[in-house]
Specification:
The structure holds two protein chains of two kinds. Chain A is of the alpha+beta class. Chain A is built from 18 helices and 21 strands. Among the domains of chain A are: 155 residues, Ubiquitin-like (UB roll); 72 residues, DNA polymerase, domain 1 (Orthogonal Bundle); 113 residues, CO dehydrogenase flavoprotein, C-terminal domain (Enolase-like, domain 1, 2-Layer Sandwich), CATH 3.30.390. Chain A is globular. Chain A starts with a strand and ends in a 10-residue tail after the last helix. In chain B, the strands form seven sheets. Chain B has an eight-stranded mixed β-sheet. In chain B, strands 7-15-14-13-8 form a five-stranded mixed β-sheet. Chain B has a four-stranded mixed β-sheet with strand order 16-27-28-29, with helices on both faces. Classes of the chains: A alpha+beta, B alpha+beta. Chains A and B meet through α2, α3, α5 and α18 of A and α1, α3, β27, α17 and α19 of B.
Chain lengths: 486, 766
């Protein structure tokens, strides 16, 4: 067994923090507000949707310090081991006064009630560090996870654009501290398994992937938590116990994203953000789709593996990954196995996952020449919304004939599911409008969707069929059939 | 020294620096005394039922629990109704009236423990059949939750009968959750005797004080309510925080400790009221030019189980069912329906938007019927100047500028040419269609409860020359404190930085009105000016006494006081006045003149004046999915002579986006059991940054000034621009209509979600 440490260690703004008494369910937000009285970070929703609690978390990635925005409300405290937490109270300009982003927000009249403001400032700060002269699209993306109910956002855009004029990211205090913080974080990393608890409530951070398998062999009942963007809500909204929780987000081996042997391998712990560039490079149709998964903070936290492992029928990644013939790697202390991703989803709430087993990676074959792809998401609001209907399509067209078709839908059944009848209606048929019309009709036999607050069954059926019509319009007719950014 | 920050200048929000640095304190940020307890509500899980019994033994045995509060702990009167209807208990005694109704509160050593324990309450309820929707309530014949209103002028029946054309229509208009980023919260601290200090996020400290006193059974002088700022209000904290203030106060009294209550977002959204959803039925007669001859309409609202503010909300819907249009013969009735849902409440516009959108739908329907541009129908029906100027409530519109506002916007937005281009492009038959609409707004300013139109201010000038300002209005982000401070700084001719704005507290200014109805700066600005003028009059009198008659003309400007050729620095002058024993503190007061209202007759002058504006929006929709983007919006809005153009512009932009959200993505969805299923931002979708119009051109009508003697001739701005969002809805309708060559006005209910848009497209395609 790996050596064990009984406390977490991290840096909060300027200070080192060591905590032994930490429950699995303790959140960073409660720690900041209640234990440290750092009340600049606000709770607006406690479900990762409003961004009022946005903070930066810095972590070492291949020895380099990388800062990302996260929602403190659903970030479990224990997972901050080895990280640098930066809150609004730590922000300052190179001269010690207001930070350029803060200055710009004041000058642009970017705050009204001010409750969302610290979170917005943190998101704009993260954007500013990445891109001091951002485009409107970049600003929108940075603010996808931040709600403002007062301003209508116009002055916040102005502030984001103006911040570039007021200071240089290279002169930012966080840049100046970088070497120091990196050194301190490196000193904290001892390669140990970390176990902390309060009473019976326990959190385990395995030392590495092999240790994870050992921990799960011993605690098959444990809750595996990667990005916590779903499990966080089990705690904050449903008050469900998650102890013992096994946190895996810190395991760098699980976060690897690499292309080799004609496969793109995404470690189960890789966040949406970690996977974004490689995926969009290999599959350009996933670029815009990826940006529509949740908001920026949630993409920085949430993982592709978690999106698959929790088995939701409305997860955004399974439909598009199944269309790409993705394979799932499952691992336990017993060994590993590989299954087609589509076979993982058995029924609502039921997946092909054995006791002590965890999702290790998803692999996508890269050689897909001659295949036409599409990824569509339809939701009430364009950004940061849960899917009403999602679709991943992959069609191989040879000499004007549809040789193969994979049509996968989310939100249409109890699991992400291929449309067998519609696929059959396309296969072997000419690549023309009539074939797609027949496939659209055949969809009625594939799905009996539900009515809920996101959409009615009737709407879901109609939209699913219309997405096939959209595909034809775009791929067959070259028509403009999508709104900007969809 | 320049006139830094006086009225008319874009002074930044007084809290801006604190807000961007995280140092602005909200109620939950106030340090807690040792021993602070936390309360959490236990709520009903049926929409209607008889309470047979409560077993709280599990709750009491839970970790950290100190005790519970039930209706039996209420030492005073068990009612929190804002209108004293005696229909809204803190906790009901015998009957549950909506899903999510609070039934008890658990008090524990931490919020987390109180929340977990509240889940353990076992409440035995015999379910009864609920009435959930307005249409169900209408079909059942009521009851109304409060008295309906009728507005009548001329002979609507005859006008309809003799009209060249007539049409009848219906519209379902959705409600809206406030989604203030800071949820409801109250923090009560018991004092000696019966004293209770309550910090709360409230738009109406006096009401919280009165209701808490009533529930505790103590006089109002025992209760102090404080609010420094709210993290958004929008009407949702006008009466809805009464519950939380009372629970915190009851628990603080019972356990003798400070008690805080802060519901989570789900409970905040299920246990507190929202904008009323309406069912509108209308019939309109008109001539060949589209000019209306008669209107008859019923506006029925889902009010929920209790009256709350539903009476004045449905009244205001009728007051705005004319929007900017003259109806020669008219009969408007409201039906405030009682339903087994949460009691709906104030929300920016206060029923007005629902009335206005019905008027705008009528304009659209007339236009399609006659094959004309809806803007021409709108213009044909505008109130006249000196003629065709009497409203359905018999008030004459004396300050009408709508024609000029609309003409300027029509020109600056290039409406006609863009409309032609859009229709030409749509004619090519693509999947994506565009639409454009230009809609006006006229909004009546004043509380229709006439006695609310009063305000007070307490102003101190300290002997070092610094000024402390306290007025009865509350700051929820709208910049009220900044504007009022600008008024005071200008009155004394000093720098804005000399004026310190302090928390609103019932200890300093008593008997205040809600900061609502857009009235904040109108009322409190005038009260503050009154206080400043009183102090100035004493200073002038003192100068005349000290230096003789040459000092009758005293000028306060540029941080100096000019008096008979002598020039004093402000601080020096004040120090001297203090030394000469001049009273440097004053209580200001204001009441709005001219207004009166006879509700029984449906006649009077409920509004001191009107605010005007117009918006032109262009949208693009996807006819395969119903998805929608707002491509461009142009706004011209009237704020009179602006007290602070930056603050006013912020109000206009924010209100437009909030109005757009109401009519597009914000959908309240109840299931068949009467459970609200869109109860947090994960399921209830307010606009995001990326929903803002791609191009957003906002201008204030700089030429406008209020003909009435308002503060610096400004106009109220909080609510009127909310209705500019209706232009987005009508632009969507225009885009939808393209699929059937504009022959039919699409039946479109609000909100126009992608689903409603797609279904409207499908209906037209069939």
């Amino acid at each position: 067994m790996a050596k064990e440490r009984r406390e977490i260690r991290f840096i909060l703004n300027g200070s080192d923090v060591r905590l032994g008494e930490v429950a699995a369910q303790d959140t960073l937000l409660d720690f900041l507000r209640n234990a440290r009285r750092l009340t600049g970070t606000k709770e607006g929703c406690a479900e990762g949707d409003c961004g009022a609690c946005t903070v930066l978390v810095g972590r070492l990635v291949k020895g380099r310090l990388r800062y990302e925005t996260v929602n403190a409300c659903i970030r479990f405290l224990a997972t901050l081991d080895g990280c640098h937490v930066v809150t609004i109270e730590h922000l300052r300009g190179a001269d010690g006064g207001m930070h350029p982003v803060q200055q710009a927000m004041v000058e642009a009249h970017g705050s009204q009630c001010g409750f969302c403001t610290p979170g917005i400032v943190m998101s704009l700060y993260a954007l500013w560090m990445q891109s001091a002269a951002p485009s409107d699209a970049e600003i929108e993306t940075a603010l996808q996870g931040n709600l403002c109910r007062c301003t209508g956002y116009e002055p916040i855009f102005k502030a984001a654009r103006a911040a570039a004029e007021l200071g240089d990211p290279a002169a930012d205090p966080l840049e100046a501290e970088r070497a120091d913080v990196t050194g301190r974080l490196k000193a904290m990393a001892d390669g140990a398994r970390v176990t902390v608890s309060r009473g019976e409530d326990r959190a385990i951070l395995p030392a590495d992937v092999a240790d994870l398998a050992d921990v799960l062999a011993k605690h098959p009942e444990a809750t595996i938590v990667a990005g916590a963007t779903d499990v966080g809500l089990w705690v904050t909204k449903f008050l469900k116990p998650i102890s013992p929780a096994v946190f895996v987000g810190h395991l760098s081996d699980l976060r690897q994203v690499d292309a080799k042997a004609a496969r793109l391998r995404i470690g189960a712990g890789a966040s949406y953000t970690d996977a974004e560039a490689a995926l969009a490079r290999a599959f350009p149709h996933l670029g815009p789709y990826w940006k529509r998964i949740a908001g920026w903070q949630v993409r920085n936290m949430g993982t592709v593996g978690g999106n698959i492992a929790n088995g939701s029928p409305i997860g955004d990644t399974p439909p598009v990954l199944i269309a790409l013939e993705a394979k799932l790697h499952l691992r336990s202390a017993e060994g590993t196995r590989e299954i087609p991703l589509e076979d993982f989803f058995i029924d609502y709430g039921k997946q092909d996952l054995r006791a002590g087993e965890f999702v290790e990676a998803v692999e996508i074959p890269l050689a897909q020449e001659g295949v036409r792809h599409a990824a569509y998401k339809v939701s009430k609001r364009r950004d940061e919304d849960i899917t009403a209907v999602a679709a991943g399509f992959a069609l191989r067209v040879e000499n004007g004939v549809i040789a193969d078709a994979r049509l996968v839908f989310g939100g249409m059944a109890a699991v992400p599911k291929r449309a067998a009848q519609a696929e059959a209606a396309l296969k072997g048929q000419p690549f023309d409008a009539a074939s797609f019309e027949r496939a659209a009709q055949a969809l009625a036999e594939d799905f009996q969707p539900l009515t809920d607050w996101r959409a009615s069954a009737e709407y879901r059926r109609l939209v699913a069929a219309n997405l096939l019509r959209r595909f034809w319009a775009e791929e067959g007719e070259g028509a403009k059939a999508r709104l900007e950014g969809v | 020294m320049g006139k830094l920050g006086h009225t008319g200048t874009p002074a930044p929000h007084d809290s801006a620096i604190k807000q961007v640095t995280g140092r602005a304190d909200y109620t939950d940020d106030i340090p807690e005394p040792i021993g602070t307890l936390h309360a959490y509500l236990g709520c009903a899980e049926v929409a209607r039922g008889r309470i047979e019994g409560m077993d709280l033994s599990g709750v009491l045995a839970a970790e950290g629990v100190v005790g519970v509060i039930t209706h039996e702990d209420i030492t005073g009167h068990n009612d929190i109704s804002a209108v004293h209807a005696d229909d809204e208990p803190v906790f009901p005694v015998s009957e549950v009236e909506f899903h999510g109704q609070p039934l008890c509160a658990v008090v524990a050593t931490s919020r987390d423990l109180a929340r977990r324990a509240a889940e353990l309450a076992k409440i035995e309820i015999t379910p009864l059949e609920p009435v959930l929707t307005t249409r169900e309530a209408l079909a059942a014949g009521g009851p109304d939750v409060t008295a309906p209103l009728k507005l009548e002028r001329g002979d609507a029946a005859e006008g309809l009968k003799s009209a060249q054309h007539r049409l009848a229509g219906q519209m379902e208009i959705g409600g809206q959750d406030h989604m203030y980023l800071e949820g409801q919260i109250a923090f009560a601290m018991p004092g000696e005797d019966d004293d209770m200090v309550i910090h709360a996020s409230t738009q109406h400290p006096t009401e919280a004080q009165m209701i808490a006193a009533q529930v505790l059974g103590v006089p109002a002088n025992a209760v102090v309510v404080n609010v420094r700022r709210m993290g958004g209000g929008f009407g949702g904290k006008e009466s809805q925080m009464n519950l939380f203030c009372c629970v915190a106060a009851l628990a603080a009294r019972k356990f003798g400790q400070a008690v805080k209550i802060r519901p989570d977002r789900d409970q905040d959204m299920t246990a507190t009221g929202k904008r009323h959803d309406f069912s509108a039925d209308y019939e309109v007669g008109f001539d060949g030019e589209g000019r209306i001859t008669a209107v008859e309409a019923q506006l029925a609202a889902r009010c929920g189980f209790a009256a709350d503010l539903s009476g004045p909300v449905t009244d205001r819907a009728l007051f705005h069912a004319d929007n900017a249009y003259y109806y020669p013969n008219v009969r408007l009735t409201s039906r405030p329906m009682k339903t087994n849902t949460v009691s709906n409440t104030a929300f920016r516009g206060f029923g007005g938007p629902q009335g206005v959108i019905m008027a705008e739908r009528m304009m659209e329907e007339i236009a399609y019927k006659l094959g004309k541009d809806p803007l021409d129908i709108r213009k044909a029906n505008f109130y006249g100047v000196g003629e065709r100027d009497v409203t359905p409530y018999h008030q004459t519109v004396e300050d009408n500028i709508i024609a000029r506002v609309v003409e300027e916007l029509e020109e600056s937005s290039d409406y006609r040419a863009r409309r032609d281009a859009i229709m030409a492009e749509n004619a090519k038959g693509g999947i994506l269609r565009r639409g454009i609409a230009l809609t006006p707004v006229k909004f009546g300013i004043s509380f229709t409860a006439t006695w609310y139109n009063q305000a007070g201010c307490l102003l101190h000038v300290y002997k070092d020359g610094s000024i402390m300002l306290n007025h009865g209005g509350t700051e929820m982000g709208q910049g009220l404190n900044t504007k009022v401070a600008q008024v005071v700084a200008e009155a004394f001719g000093v720098d804005l930085e000399l004026v310190k704005i302090t928390k609103t507290t019932t200890e300093k200014v008593p008997n205040t009105s809600a900061t609502a109805a857009s009235s904040g700066s109108d009322l409190n600005g005038m009260a503050a000016l009154d206080a400043a003028e009183q102090i100035k009059a004493r200073l002038v009198a003192h100068a005349a006494e000290k230096w003789g008659d040459v000092c009758n003309d005293v000028q306060f400007a540029d941080g100096k006081v000019l008096c008979g050729g002598e020039e004093f620095g402000w601080r020096e002058f004040i120090a001297q006045a203090y030394a000469d024993r001049v009273q440097l503190s004053a209580a200001g007061f204001y009441k709005t003149p001219k207004i009166h209202w006879d509700r029984a007759k449906g006649q009077g002058r409920p509004f001191y004046y009107f605010a005007y504006g117009a918006a032109c929006s262009e949208v693009e929709i996807d006819t395969l999915t119903g998805e929608c983007r707002v491509l461009r919006a142009d706004i011209l809005h009237d704020v009179g002579r602006s007290l602070n153009p930056a603050v006013d512009r912020g109000q206009v932009e924010g209100a437009f986006i909030q109005g757009m959200g109401w009519l597009t993505t914000e959908e309240l969805w109840w299931d068949e059991a009467g459970r609200l299923r869109t109860h947090a931002p994960s399921t209830y979708k307010i606009p995001l940054a990326s929903d803002k119009p791609r191009e957003f051109n906002v201008r204030l009508a700089e030429w406008s000034e209020n003909p009435e003697r308002t503060i610096k001739r400004s106009k109220a701005v909080g609510e009127p621009p909310f209705m500019l969002g209706i232009s987005v809805f009508e632009a969507i309708s225009h885009a939808v209509a393209s699929v059937a060559d504009y022959k039919t006005c699409p039946r479109l209910d609000a909100p126009a979600t992608p689903e409603r848009i797609l279904m409207a497209v499908e209906r037209l395609k069939r």
